[in-house]
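Question:
Now give any protein.
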Amino acid sequence: MSETRDPTSRVWTVPNALSMLRLLGVPLFVWLLLAHHDGVGLVVLMIAGFTDYADGKIARRFHMESRLGALLDPAADRLYIAATIVCLAIRGILPLWVVLALVARELFILALAPTVRRHRLPLPPVHFIGKAATFNLLYAFPLLVVAQFDGTVGDVAAPIAWAFVIWGVTLYWLAGLLYAVQVREMVNAVRAPQAAR
């Protein structure tokens, strides 16, 4: 009798292919922004945003969730955010305080990694606040690029972009703090049976 294969171990699925495509677009996106090809860069970012939505929708609708997908999807989001931060900072569009706030949050999350590894904990599930933070930042950064355009379009985009930036940074930190709480709760759950022995 053959063993049933774990469906979450699948690699070649449509959602995973879309996530890989999104990852491959990062270097192109960086080059476009640094070369000031903002219009084309925005198109690449829009395509990335659509594939981000589509891979999750397809995975849930057709039961194609996988462990690889759970790693690729947030990795692609983080890479686009990091790439955009670096490019906008180099071009002087994004102020230093935003860059430092986002980098500090990533360092805060990285500081929890040894605890997760030491206790052999699973990665906590992504909280909806984290998704909302990513949503805000993924809208904020392209709008900041649009805000550089001359005329009414740029004037209208600027305040909307900064609203998304402020909400995105705030929610990004709140999601990081909730992640720390989740890790602490899992550590306590692991230690409780040991303490009862």
Summary: Residues 152-196 form the longest helix (45 residues). The chain has a mean pLDDT of 87.
